[in-house]
Write a structure and sequence with these properties.
There is one protein chain. With 168 residues, this protein is an all-alpha fold. 55% of the residues lie in helices and 0% in strands. The protein contains nine helices and no strands. It binds heme C. Heme C binds next to helix 3 and helix 7.
Amino acid sequence: MNKLFHLITVPLFTLTLLLSPFVLKHSFAHGKEKHASATKSSITYTKDIKPIFDNKCAKCHGKKSPEHMEFVKDVKKYTAKKIGPKMDSYSHLVSFVIWPDAGSLAKALDDGKNTEDGKPGKMYNRLGKTDEERRENLNVFKKWVGYWTLKPWSDITKDEIARMKIVY
Ligand code: HEC
């Protein structure tokens, strides 16, 4: 009986010991990942993006602005008045990241590293008064999006969208 007991428990014990680092590592990594999207250190819309937006973008993309679909009906009129499409809520802003206007926010804010002509996007200058401020704020937007691409909806893949973070 004793011998049989050892015959089963010893290999079982060894196997558990051998596997435990993998099991632990896996569950830890999984937990960490989950944790990251909820901790204060991660970039969120409410904590990080909204204050920048209110400060740097809201006067042209805020309450007085039309819905994007309305805006495109008369781009000239709105642009002349320095009014851009409405982006002053989480869902409005996300529509310029994923759908229907994927890549639009990145295209407007990029510093030129990812644009076709190597020039900064139209709204890059609005990110700050100094190079440093612009760089910092761009970095916050980039981290918030999580996967920075200028690809439009027609080219972006589901896989790429899945890599985005855009935490509320
Ligand atoms: C002085 C007014 C003004 C400010 C400030 C401003 N924008 Fe704009 N924005 C516009 C106008 C007008 C347009 C549309 C015309 C154009 O594309 O040039 C526009 C276009 C855009 C677009 C492209 C929308 C599209 O047609 O797909 C994005 C994205 C954008 N702005 C984001 C921002 C962000 C983010 C900020 C703040 C960092 C910002 N803008 C600051 C006026 C402004």
